[in-house]
User: What shape does this take?
Amino acid sequence: MELPNEQKIEIESGLKRLILIELVLPTALLILGIYHGLMQVLYRAGHIHARKVLGLEYYQGLTLHGVVNAIVFTTFFAVAFGYAVIRFYLGHVNMKVAWLSFTLMVAGTLLAAAAILSGTSSVLYTFYPPLRAHPAFYIGLTLVVVGSWIAFFNWLPIYFTWKREHPDEKTPLAVVGIFAAFIVWLIATIPVAIEIIFMLIPWSLGWVPTVNVPLARMLFWFFGHPLVYFWLLPTYVMYYTMLPKVSGGKLFSDFAGRLTFMWLILYSAPVGIHHQFTEPGISSTWKFVHAFFTLLVAVPSFATAFVMAASMELGARERGGRGLLGWWKQLPYTDTKRWLFGYFFCGLVIFILGGVTGIINASYNLDTVVHNTSWMPAHFHQTVAGPVFLSYIGMTLFLVAKLMGKEIKLPRMNVWVPYVWTLGIMIFSAGQYVTGATGEPRRTNMGLTYANPESPLYHADWRIGGMSASVGGTIMAIAALMFFIVFFTTLFGKSTKRGSLELVVSEPYHDENVRAVQSFTPWLVGAALLLVIAYTPPIAQTLRSNFPGAPAYTPDRPTPINPPKR
Amino acid sequence: MTPALKLERRILIIAVAFVLILFGLAAMAINLFHVGLPTCLTDIKPFQKGEFITHSPTHYEVHYVAKMWDFEPKEVTVPAGSTVDIYVSTPDVTHGLILLGTNLNLMVVPGVVNYARVKLDEARTYQLLCHEYCGTGHERMAANLRVVDAATFTAPKPAPAAPSQQTGDSMAKLLEAKDCLTCHSMDGSDGIGPTFKGMFGRKTKLKDGTTITADEAYLREAILNPSATVVDGFDDVMPKPELTEEEASALIEYLKNLK
Assistant: This one.
């Protein structure tokens, strides 16, 4: 992509190598994660009636799919993209600290992957106790998280120095977004670190006999929802700072971007109980409070939808678009010079459905219709596997090509990747929304029973969901294959010029200096207050002494690993 | 204020108003349609035994035990038009309970009892199934709640006397108590493990490729040392049961007669 006034900087080879490995390694792992995504839809459609295929068991593969795609790939990308943004806008990072963070994250990934592949940790990526994984699984995840914290701590002094040297300047919008992402990540990962380090690791090693399951679940979802904003924030950084320029225009509102980032710091976390609406042990009053905050966290996404449409319109009119709606024809949908457009635009289109269904899930009593049904994977694939996935793989390809000074190979195939993916995900979700609303369970090897005509539990009425997921899932796998072909032929192609760090930088269309969104401090204080209010009473409820603790189980035996003495 | 900023402010107000209206609708539904969410119960302890309790001809209470990988009771019957209070508890891991065709949707969490009330007007068989991953047998964890015409409904009587001899009845109890029946059925259908019916004397292919006849010596080995004798087509998942020598011998005698 050669845009006018493109900004590039030469960077030191150490940082270049670090960013490249942090982008290429998880992309390679993604092959494994997507492979089981494809296998899963084939089981669920009833094309496979078996526990395992090629040595990979269904629930083991499901664990791998979740951990690789949703934890490893996303965290590595966010860290690599964060380094790119910080270096590009602010200045030099400390390489020793950067490599320490990198080493921890890679070691953690390898440990967790070994635990899953050995078959001793088929507990899914939510690892609900008292199903117990191998201790290496928990330790590996902890190392990945701690490594990502260290990356963030590496950027903080650079930010403070920059602020001191530029007292009258607004912090660059992309930096605000990346910091918002990692502030949300820090808020989210502290409770889950407490769950893993103080509860699950000692328990999985047999040092303590039982675990408080309601508390563990609450700490998990304290993490589990802000996690999705940690995924979404780097995507929003790309939308606000790059999409306007790629469309040929300007960012309609710099203020809306800053407000969105600050709003997500405020409301990302006091919402986790909306994942626990149907659970015992939490009073319905506090479920209601979390439902309220969850709906408020949808507001910045409405604002983003508006600003993105407005920015694209500015771009289209700049390119000669006319009329009330006629300008839509003037966007660079399949322009190989502006190929990032498709990766951003398709994500926005998918996110309309993902956002609407998210509001349904958050709406308190409506959740009883869809909780833990196939509606859920239909919904969250249209968020994390829509805007997040497409922008992440698009930016991975962009950064790798620029850093290595390579031309994109197979550019025609490349521009079609996001559109094929979008077609696939729409079909994947459509049928599952329908059958999910009638109760088809998620996280279930349907091929053995509910999608098996020979089983007494066979549900003919659910076949449509399984078939739509398998057709859509296969199309998604084809899109992913197209991407991998483009990515790896580009990666192993010849360098044509000196590599440099480049980011697309959009100018603002109008640029107010609204004071309320210039400083993190008031929003951080607000977030802390909301968290104390929203979580103190529910956590106190899980600590009631009359809930007995649970001993550990492996998924394959209906008896505890160490039976309690009778 | 510039026109653009005005436009943005209007969009923000519309977005906030929109989500507040949605929130208001959810709140209204609690009162108008009586659809709430389960809350925190503190006066009931987790239970180990499934139960069906009749409060009145139109009001029943079921205590479901969700365990790896079955519900207890497996089947209950109520007359159409009944209100059913459902309590659910688990002795092992996390499960779910969804009653298909209704809005009853509960998580089953170790240590805490969950509760919801459902009104069942239509005479049909409702299926309830586990919707949270709970291990190897998760996908077969289901049960039935039958609703019959009020005219044909007869209240459940205490369990009928044992059809077989004394020993058979106590053996069935032992199999239940040791959780054997979670995986091995008595009716000829294979589950997580092979069925008990007709097991004795059957020619059986093992995972290591050898074929054996299930005689007394084989059954003793299979019961006391399960991992050494895995049948082809099944996984090596059976835990060593806690059986005394006498119990194991009695069990083998019992299996000999279960044709």
Observations:
- The radius of gyration of chain A is 23 Å.
- Chain A has a mean pLDDT of 93.
- The first strand of chain A starts at residue 7 and ends at 9.
- Chain A has one domain: 9-542.
